[in-house]
Amino acid sequence: MSIIRQNIMESATRHFSKNGYAATSIQEIADDCGIAKGSLYKFFQSKEDLFIAFHDSQQKAFYTEIESIRADATLSLREAFVLETECHFEFFLNNKFIMHDIKELNASKGHFAPSFLRLRANLLKSTKEGLIRLLGEEVDPNIWDLVIMYNGIVREFIFLLIFENKPLNVREIAFYIVDRIEEMAACIVQKKTQPILQNAIMNNYMQCEMTGESITIAEYRTSLLENLLSTVKELSITNFRKAELSDAIALLQEELANEYPKSVLIHALLGFIGKEHELENIVRQLERYIFWQQNN
Description:
Structural class: mainly alpha
Number of strands: 0
Mean pLDDT: 84
Number of domains: 2
Low-confidence stretches: none
Number of helices: 14
Radius of gyration: 23 Å
Strand content: under 5%
Order of helices and strands: HHHHHHHHHHHHHH
Distance between the termini: 48 Å
């Protein structure tokens, strides 16, 4: 990295961290670096590009810290995940602008969308890896449900700390969250709970998020149909019943491909497929997205 570019990034860190995106100007950063605004544009074509570069550098520092924690052989797996959870909190507390800017910039759309989608995907991926290390491979069928529950709990506590300024102790929160996740995981494994978020669905979702692209309703629907077919093959039922279900799914795919699919036929096929308990959750998700798409 050139000295000028490094100076720009350091100045951007100070200004964006203190003032956020909207209240920071390219002219302020250029003046802080002692260069003309035109010289800054040789390195970054716009304030948006500079903010994204700064945003990416903060993420890299965060994941470097996570890897350092995981590489520490003196820590037990539980101690490491507690520290990872603390690190998660510290990242957002030290970069409060991210939470504010995600809200203000309507991060799901426009120029910033790919960067914020990658941020979400990387956080989910890191959480998944950490939970598998902590809980073991036996939670793999339900891992995405646990990932979402963990991140949901963390997000709400972060909201209380940042937006409500609640005087909470981060270390105590981290221990509390890890305790609850271990309890939930043990209960899920003991009861052999059917997952809400199937691996096949989430892997497709993550692939889109990593490339900075939102998954479309049509892509998600296709992923659910593929997941139905793969699950049918694993069911402990007769080959005749498997053939019936596979035929029903094929008919459903054909009907959905029509310009004007028949709702009555779709309902009947979903009802037939959903009679298998193991397919019920997937059918409910598929039904929701099919009829959402038809009504929009």
